[in-house]
Amino acid sequence: MGELCVLGIEGDTKIMWDVDSEKECEAAKEQFNLLVKKGFNAFRVDKEGDKGRRLERFEESAGKIIMVPIMQGG
């Protein structure tokens, strides 16, 4: 099971997908790509929450992906 955690100003959301379901993987990938186009950064982390790595493209085998909006200063 994969998990896409989206951190946003209106609250956090989670998108789950079954890695064995092509339809669910494709839907999660579409959301990932949409968020990247909006300026979010993606990070793959392991189940224990240890430091992960930045993702440039969707990895359906990732256990957990955290999407973080770009911070803007004023």
CATH architecture: Roll
Total tally of structural domains: 1
Strand order of the largest sheet: 2-1-5-3-4
Task: Please name the CATH topology.
Answer: Ubiquitin-like (UB roll)
Stretches where pLDDT falls below 50 for ≥5 residues? Answer: none
Strand content: 25-35%
Number of helices: 1
Helix proportion:
10-25%
Query: What structural class should be given to the helix and strand makeup?
Result: alpha+beta
Q: Give the CATH level 1 class.
A: Alpha Beta
Name the helix and strand elements from N-terminus to C-terminus, one letter apiece. EEHEEE
Question: What do these coordinates show?
Answer:
- By secondary structure, the protein is α+β, with helices and mostly antiparallel strands.
- The chain has a single domain, classed as Ubiquitin-like (UB roll), CATH 3.10.20.
- Helices cover 22% and strands 34% of the residues.
- It contains one helix and five strands, in the order E-E-H-E-E-E.
- The chain has one helix at 22-37; strands at residues 2-6, 13-17, 40-45, 53-55, 64-69.
- The protein is globular and about 40 Å long.
Quick recap:
The chain has 74 residues and is of the alpha+beta class. It is 22% helix and 34% strand. It has a single domain, classed as Ubiquitin-like (UB roll) (Roll), CATH 3.10.20.
Descriptors:
74 residues, alpha+beta, Ubiquitin-like (UB roll), 1 helix
Walk me through the topology.
Layout: E1 2-6, E2 13-17, H1 22-37, E3 40-45, E4 53-55, E5 64-69
Parallel strand pairs: 1-5
Antiparallel strand pairs: 1-2, 3-4, 3-5
